[in-house]
Amino acid sequence: xxxxxxxxxxxxxxxxxxxxxxxxxxxxxxxxxxxxxxxxxxxxxxxxxxxxxxxxxxxxxxxxxxxxxxxxxxxxxxxxxxxxxxxxxxxxxxxxxxxxxxxxxxxxxxxxxxxxxxxxxxxxxxxxxxxxxxxxxxxxxxxxxxxxxxxxxxxxxxxxxxxxxxxxxxxxxxxxxxxxxxxxxxxxxxxxxxxxxxxxxxxxxxxxxxxxxxxxxxxxxxxxxxxxxxxxxxxxxxxxxxxxxxxxxxxxxxxxxxxxxxxxxxxxxxxxxxxxxxxxxxxxxxxxxxxxxxxxxxxxxxxxxxxxxxxxxxxxxxxxxxxxxxxxxxxxxxxxxxxxxxxxxxxxxxxxxxxxxxxxxxxxxxxxxxxxxxxxxxxxxxxxxxxxxxxxxxxxxxxxxxxxxxxxxxxxxxxxxxxxxxxxxxxxxxxxxxxxxxxxxxxxxxxxxxxxxxxxxxxxxxxxxxxxxxxxxxxxxxxxxxxxxxxxxxxxxxxxxxxxxxxxxxxxxxxxxxxxxxxxxxxxxxxxxxxxxxxxxxxxxxxxxxxxxxxxxxxxxxxxxxxxxxxxxxxxxxxxxxxxxxxxxxxxxxxxxxxxxxxxxxxxxxxxxxxxxxxxxxxxxxxxxxxxxxxxxxxxxxxxxxxxxxxxxxxxxxxxxxxxxxxxxxxxxxxxxxxxxxxxxxxxxxxxxxxxxxxxxxxxxxxxxxxxxxxxxxxxxxxxxxxxxxxxxx
Length: 730
Known about the structure:
4-stranded antiparallel β-sheet; about 10% strand
C-alpha cells in the first residue's frame, strides 16, 4: 500500500506542475491556410499573458498586397470556435499595415492590452491542459472589396506538455528491472516466479511498443496524443544522441545517399529567433508538428515552399532526428542493446566463476547457468531478437520505401530477413518438439520442460503460455509482422493504415479471448486487457483520421480521453510489474506467491546439477538423459538434448523388447511411446490427476504404488528437484 501511495503521489505531483507554471498562450509558427502567395512570414511570435491582459507579438514578412486591409481573427479550441473578431490595422496603429504595401514588412515587438470582456471569454482550462489543441486563423480581407486576400494560421500552446523525459526513463527502468528480476530468480531455481515476472515484464514492454506504433501511424492526431505516444518511442530505438547523428549522416553520404537538411535549416531559423530573445530549443519543439517552411524573400513577390511531416517522419522530427537518419538510429540502438546484454552475461559468468573459485559464493549457486551458460546466452539472444522484432520490422520495411542509400537498403533487407528466418525457424522447432512429446509421452510439456537445453534455448517462445498452447507463438509473430508491414509500408495512406490496425487488433483480441493461451488465469487477464486497450486505441484512430467526419470538438475531446485512460492503464501496469519484481528479489521463497501451473511443468523441470540420489539417477536414466544416442540428425545439433532433434528417445525405444498383441502399448497402432510410464512416482502431479493424455490412453505402472524405489530417504528440507511441481510441499 505504501508503494501504491508513493506512485499516486508522484502522479499527482506530475499533474500539479501543469498548474504551477505561469499562465500564458503563445505561438511561434505560422503557416498558410489558403492557396495564395500574397503574404508570408519569415518570423512570427505571439504571446498572451492573462495576468496583465497583454498580447505581445512580432513578425517579419513579405507582402505582395497593397492598399487598406482588415483582418478577421478566428480562435478555435478542440474544434470549437471560441472567438471571432475583426481587426482594423489602422485603428490599432500598426505601422506597415495601414495601408499595406508590397515588399518586406518588419513589425517589431508590440504590446496590446486586451479588454477584460475579451479575456473573460477564454476558459481557464486553456492555460492548464497540457498540449493545448488550439489554433488561431487570420483572414486578411480587402477593405474595398471584402475579398479574402490571404489566410494565415498559427498553432497555440500554453507551454505544458505530457511529453516528459522522466516518463520514458521510468518505463524503461521498470521494464529492465522486471527482466533482471526474472533472470535472477530463474538462476536461483524459482522457475515459476521467473516465468510470471518475465511474462508480465515482456507484456509491459510490448504495450509500450504498441503505444509507440500508434504514434507512428500517419494520421493527424490531437497534440496530446502525439506527445503521449512520443514518450514511448525509445522502445523503437528513436533516441537522439548528438554524435550518433553525425555518424549516421557521414555513413549515408559515404554510401551514396543524400542526407536530409530539415533540422539544419530549422536551426538556422532558430538562430534568427534567438536574436529576438526567443529560446531556439523552445521554438524547435513548438514547431514539431507544424509544416516546415522554406522561404525566399523577394521585393515584389512572396513565395513559400511547404514540407509536411507526419507518421514516422514526425516522430523522428520531434525527437530531433533527421528523417534520413531514423532507420540507422534505430538499427544502431538495437545492435548496441544486444551487444551490451551479451557482454553483461559474459561478465556475470566470469564473476560467478571467480567468486566460486575463491570461496566467496556457494559452488551450487547459479550452477545451472554456469554449467550451461552458452546455451543460456543463445536463448537470451533469441529473446532479444523477439523483443526487437516489432522495431526492426517497421523501420526496415519503411527504409525500403525511403531508400536513403544503397547500403542502408541492404542492411534493412539483411536484418528483416535474418530476424524472420531465425524466429520462424525457432517457432517450427518448438512445434516439432511439442508434437514429438505428444507422440511419445502424450504431453507437450514433457520434452519442452524436462530438457534444460530445450528450455533455455527455446523457452522464450513458449514459457509464458500454457503447455497446450505452445503453437501460439506463430499467431503472435504473424500479428507483429502484418502490423509492422502496414505501419512501415503504408505511410502515404493513413486511412488504409487505420482500417488495417482496427482489423488486426480486433482479430488478435478475439483470438486471445477465445484461446486464453497464457499460463494461468491472472496472466490471461493481464494480457487480454492489454489487447483490449490496443483495440480501443485503434478505434480512436478511426476518429482521428476523420473517417466519420465528426465535429472537431469530438476529435479534440477524444484526444484527451485517449491520453487519460492510456496513462492510467500504463501506471497500473508499471506498479504491478514493479511490485512483482521487488517481491521476486527480496522474498526467500517467491514461488509461494504463485499457484502451480495446471500443465504440471514444474514436475518436469529438472536441474542436472541437483541429481543427488539414486532415485534421481534412476529417473534420469528412465527419461533417457544419458549422453549418446542411436544417431545424430545433424553435426550442427547438440548431442545430449531433446531440443537438438536427434531422436535419442526414439532410438532407445527400439531397444525395448516387442510387446504382445494384447499389450496396451500396441493399442496405438505402433506409435512410439515413452519408455517410462508417466503415472509412476517419478512423474509427480497434484490431486487433479496425472498429466493430460492426448489419445485417451495411459499405460499401467510396472511398479506397485507402495514400492520404494530407493533405500535412501530424502530429508524434508532437501526435496528432489523432481518434486517442484504441483502436489508437493515447497
